[in-house]
Amino acid sequence: MADAEYSDAPYPVANPGYGKRSVPGQLPPTGDDFGHLRPRDAAIASFIDRRRDNDDISLKTLAKYTVYGQTAVGSALRALVAAGHLRRGLEAVTSESGSTLWVTRTWWSRTPRNDAWWDAYAKGELPAGTAESRPPRPTRSRAYILLAALGRENPVLSLSHLDCTLLAPLVEEWFSRDATERQVLHALTVGLPVPVHHPAALVRRRLRDKLPPAPPPPPPRPDRPRILECSECGRPPGAGVTLRRGLCDRCRGVPRMDPPPALPPARVHALAAEARAAAGRPPERTPV
To answer: Which of 6, 26, 109, 227 is the least crowded, having the fewest Cβ atoms under 10 Å away?
Structure first.
C-alpha cells in the first residue's frame, strides 16, 4: 500500500511538544474521509490519522515510514494545511514552577476545518460543532458515587439517595480544591464516634469543618493561548491577522501596505518655513 509502515521498527513517539495532537469535535471516521484530496495526499492523511496522539509526524519521520520522499511529503503536508486538516504553531503551557512556556505543536483534524474555525481554536474558543465527540454526561456524579460508597467503607455511614444528592455539592467543593477521593474518604471515616446516630449530619459536618484551603490561583494565561504558523515560511501571521488556507499574506502574494518613509530633517525645516510664511509669521532661526 502507498502508506504502509515498515514492519521492522515500531513507530516512534515524538519528543515532548512535537507530536500529533488531535483537535476536539471530529466526526467519526469513515471510509472516505480524505476523498477530496489527491491520491498521494489522501494516503499520507490516512497514515497520519491512524497515528496516535504524540506520535512523531514530522516530515523526516513520515518520509521514513511511508514510500514517499521528503519532497513529496512536504508538498502533501502543505496540501493538508490548505485543506484544513493540519496546522502548526505554538501553544502556551504552564510549567511546574508556574511560569508560562511556549511549546511547538502540530494539530490534526480528520474533519476539515475552515480558516475561521482554526482562528477561533487558536484564541482558545471552542467553536460550534464540537459537541458530537463529547461523551454523554454520567447520570451520577463523581461526588455522588463517592458518597454512595461510604457504606462499603464503614457500614455506619450508609447514606440514602437523597443524602448523597444533597451532600454531593460539598464533596465537589473538595474536588475543586484538588482533593482526591482517598483524602475525602479519610476525612469522613477516620476517628468516628461510637455510635453514629445521624450519618448524613456527621458527613455534612466533617465536609464543612475539614474542608482544605483553596489552591493558589493559576498564573495568568496569554489572551491567545495558541499561535498558528504559516505553512510556507513558518512565521506567525501577526496580531489580528488570520491565515488563509494556512498561508500568511506575504506567502499568498498580498502586497504589504508599508508606511511612507520619514522625511529628512532638512525637508521638514523647509516645509515648516513654507507653512510659517503662508501664515505671515517670521521664519524660525536655525541654530548654528
So the answer is: 6
Q: In what order do the strands lie in the sheet with 20-22?
A: 20-22, 100-108, 86-94, 226-229
Spatial distance between the Cα atoms of 80 and 84, rounded to a whole number of angstroms: 6
Dihedral of CA atoms 229, 233, 234, 240 in degrees, nearest 10, equals -30
How many residues does this entry show for the chain?
A: 288
**What is the CA 271 to chain-centroid distance, rounded?**
54
| Residue-wise burial string across 259-288, b where 16 or more C-beta atoms lie within 10 A, e elsewhere | eeeeeeeeeeeeeeeeeeeeeeeeeeeeee
DSSP character for 162?
A: H
66 close to 47: Cβ distance less than 8 angstroms: yes
Q: What is the pLDDT of residues 16-39, one digit of tens each?
A: 767 899 998 888 888 889 999 999
* Spatial separation of the C-alpha atoms in residues 224 and 139, rounded to whole Å: 35
Task: Supply the DSSP symbol for 157.
Answer: G
What tens digit of pLDDT does each residue of 179-205 get?
899 999 999 999 999 899 999 999 999
Distance from CA of residue 27 to its chain's centroid?
Answer: 18
218: preceding bond cis by omega (within 30 degrees) = no
Would you state the cell numbers that stand for residue 9, as one nine-digit string? 521498527
Q: How does the average pLDDT of the chain come out, rounded?
A: 82
d(CA 19, CA 190): 45
